[in-house]
Amino acid sequence: MTDLSLYFSPVSTDIFESKHFTHQRMGHLISTYSNEGQFPGLDDVDIAIIGVPENRGRDFQGTGLNGPDEIRRFFYQLFPARKQINIVDLGNLLSGNTLEDTWVAVAEIISMLLEKSILPIIVGGGQHLSWANYKAYEKMGQIINIASVDSRFDIGENSSDSHSRSWLSRIILHQPNYLFNYTNIGYQTYFVDQDAIRLMKKMFFDTYRLGFVNQNIEEMEPMVRNADMLSFDISSIRQSDAPGCANATPNGFYGEQACQIMRFAGMSDKLTSLGIYEYDPEFDSNGQTAHLIAQMLWYFMEGFYNRMKDFPIKTKEQDHYFKYYVTIEGQKDEVIFYKSTKSDRWWMEVNCPTYLQTKFARHYLVPCAYSDYQSACSNDLPDRWWQVYQKLM
């Protein structure tokens, strides 16, 4: 196996010198690569942080490459929600000669971590790194769902668009394709071409306007729970809360909403990788955005260490679920719902041909909300059920 230390440079030791950096904070509990020759071991590790100081491929390349360390400066000072955490910080990725070299390196690192059942968190760089994250799953031959918190779809409108504005189209057009579903959380209509919205519907992808999400934030929990990887564009947060981004705009999520979405992601048993992108300290004000990202990471890890492991697969733990059969007029088969007795979360089973059940074993049991069960009981087939059914047929 490749020596991972060859890909990284140590974290700056300056971030450990703050007067607020005292015992039992994150910086003391995380095993960090901060000295040459002392790369952290990966045995019994749950989460690995990867700093990516990469400015190429973005709308505005900026001059500051110290974004990951600026985030660490705040994150390491936070107190953890629990004392027993198994997290390593692998340091900062050495940039490739070309952007494509960086993509290859990120894909290789993430695939190695996933094979060890370690959840990688990418911090820094442009959102085009989502492409490299996706390629890691391709290397493993795994069909996945992607969720993106973003004010745009990033499918590119012309050839001059940056890689960060066209990473999703790169994934959609790639063959062989390992993308089962894409979910956008928080798009702002004035930033999105109507043809792009129609394309999302045609492909049976899930898209949710910012206004809807603001009014129904709890409805996003099943959407995030359905994802294997989450890509978070900091520009989706309003400029007043996160100015440290070249694409920051007046409207967007509040900081506490971003933290809530991150906690949803942390609690998802299915989600296995995360990236937080487009932070640029050159635009930040008194470290406000870095501090917010640090708190977002805190909420993700708090959720991660409260995972219920209650995905309703056919296991010995059938007593951990209530199973409901709902008859809908015009439907040949009943719609089956599962409710976890551990977390009160819901799933619904979508009809899947027998010969495809092995290939899509992780996708025809769809996370849903209690409102979907209520809709079915009112003789209304949930939209989520229908969208997945179209992909399976």
Structure description:
The protein folds into 2 domains: 4-304, Ureohydrolase domain (Arginase, Chain A, 3-Layer(aba) Sandwich), CATH 3.40.800.10; 318-392, no CATH class. The model has no long low-confidence stretch (mean pLDDT 91). The chain has helices spanning 26-29, 67-75, 99-115, 129-140, 167-173, 194-202, 210-215, 220-225, 255-267, 288-304, 370-377, 383-392, and strands at 8-9, 31-32, 47-51, 87-93, 119-123, 144-149, 179-187, 206-209, 229-233, 273-277, 321-326, 335-340, 346-349, 365-368. The relative contact order is 0.11. 30% of the residues lie in helices and 18% in strands. The strands form 2 sheets. Strands 1, 2, 3, 4, 5, 6, 7, 8, 9 and 10 form a 10-stranded mixed beta sheet that branches. The chain is of the alpha/beta class and 393 residues long. The protein starts with 7 loop residues before the first strand and ends with a helix. The chain is globular. Helix 2 crosses helix 10.
